[in-house]
Amino acid sequence: MRRSRSTVRRIAAAVAVTGLVATGSLMGAGAAAAADGPQHQGGAVATLDGLKTFDGSKIYWKGEKEPQSMNAGVFEMTVDGGGKLKTYCIDIYNPTVDDAKYQETPWEQTSLNSNENAGKILWILKNSYPEVDDLKALAEKAGAGALTEQTAAAGTQVAIWRFSDDVKVTADDENAEKLATYLEKEAKKLQEPKASLTLDPNAVSGKPGGRLGPVTVQTNAAQASLALSADAIAGGVKLVDEAGKPVTSGANGSKVFFDVPADAADGTATLTAQATTSVPVGRAFAPAVGKSQTMILAGSSESTVTANATASWAKTGPIPAVTAEKNCAKGGVDVTASNKGDEPFTFKLAGAEHTVPAGGSKTVTVPVAEDQAYEITITGPDGFKETFKGVLDCKTSPPTDPEPENPGNPSPASAGGTSASTSTSTSGGGGDLAATGSSNSTPMIAGIAIALVAVGGGAVFVLRKKKTSTAE
Fold it and tell me: How far apart are CA 337 and CA 380, in angstroms?
């Protein structure tokens, strides 16, 4: 028996996206949840302010006789909801775009996914500027002379680039170069830090008349506030703990459930977790939409972090939940459809038809070209449709030409695509800089941003927890 269109579309609100944009026909409770604003896999969401503390360096592109001058140093970002982040670049072959939106991302979904030296980059971050602000002591350890904030930032970035991009790069300042050499030599592999805040799993489903879950809170904050969407509360849904008592907050490891009344109409509920904490040093930050350099966190003020989870329910029929996340290891996007209902759920994806039995799930990996924008659509019965958009950015390697047309020079332009042949940063060195920020990725980012405005409440970023990578 086919379900009514309203039932299937309401269940569509359980769509979860990692590092992607999802647009679709979300109705009823689903539309209300989507209108709350962009969601993501959990943690901090921030806007790139630009390069702030830097000095010069030289990049020796393979096959080129002359090196290219490039600023090297610390970027700053402003966190949505409050807070500031300091980051370094780990993606030298791509440009930065000021005002680009970034989100906290697991290593495995960035160019660090296959980098055996990822843990060494974390060691550098923990043992250099700005995490270490005693520059005199840092200089003594490195066997360098006097270090300024600018030269310390440059030396740190140079050392990171050697591990993140496997590129020959040197700092212009003698003491900055000594710092870079010291950091490269002493670096040891450390384990990837955990996310500042996630909810695991990010989507649960089932039939009304019981508790759906559990959803586990994972955070480095002392407590995270927990709140249900207004439409869910109006429908009698409650958030409860393992003992069935209502809860409004949770600590790391807390398990919570959606308590759905037996007479509840088919629909969905959204759980939002929020906390104020310092994001762990070493967390990766990838662009949420479009192309911009991947970053890695070097320091954080107290910042607002969020995470979302959804619950969907129906009395009879299929109860689909569709998730999508980048799979760097396979060079594509994993689209997973689960079905907690009592009838099969059939969907079409990438030109093929797939059926998920009642109580089952199915994952399809859709191949995606590196550094290319993609749009993946899944369709089902009664008008069910979800579209996932994003850019796969899983590798850092030189393009076909020895020197990139617009390499990742930390001298970003505005999102409007103005030239960045000179830096707009507030402190640092000068020199002949490579033009960045005005690459082909800039209009693409602007175009996707316009598309997001057009779809309004139908644009969603939603979390999905993945196993934490470990540097060996």
Answer: 11
Our measurement of the distance from residue 116's CA atom to the centroid of its chain's CA atoms, rounded to an integer in Å, reads 20
pTM over 0.70: yes
Half-sphere exposure of 4 (CA within 13 A, CB side): 11
Q: Return d(Cα 34, Cα 49) in angstroms, integer.
A: 27
CA dist 85 and 422 (Å) reads 23
CA separation, residue 466 to residues 66, 340, 469 (Å): 43, 21, 9
239-252 as b/e: b if 16+ CB within 10 A:
bbeeeeeebebbee
Q: Are 309 and 255 in contact (CB under 8 A)?
A: no
Return the top range by mean pLDDT from 17-31, 263-277, 366-380, 392-406: 263-277
Residue 103 has pLDDT above 60, yes or no: yes
Q: Which residue has the tokens 């309203």?
A: 6
In our burial notation (b when 16+ CB lie closer than 10 A, e otherwise), range 329-342 reads eeebbbbbbbbbbe
* Dihedral sign computed on CA atoms, order 109, 114, 119, 124: negative
The tens digit of pLDDT for each residue in 311-351 reads 989 999 998 878 788 899 999 999 988 899 999 999 999 99
Helix (H, G, I), strand (E, B) or coil at 103: strand
Section 215-240 average pLDDT: 96
* Full DSSP string of 214-279: EEEEEESSS-EEEEE-HHHHHTT-EEE-TTS-B-SEE-TT-EEEEEE-TTPPSEEEEEEEEEEEEP
User: What whole-number distance in Å separates Cα of residue 189 and Cα of residue 16?
Assistant: 32
The CA distance from 459 to 440, in Å, is: 24
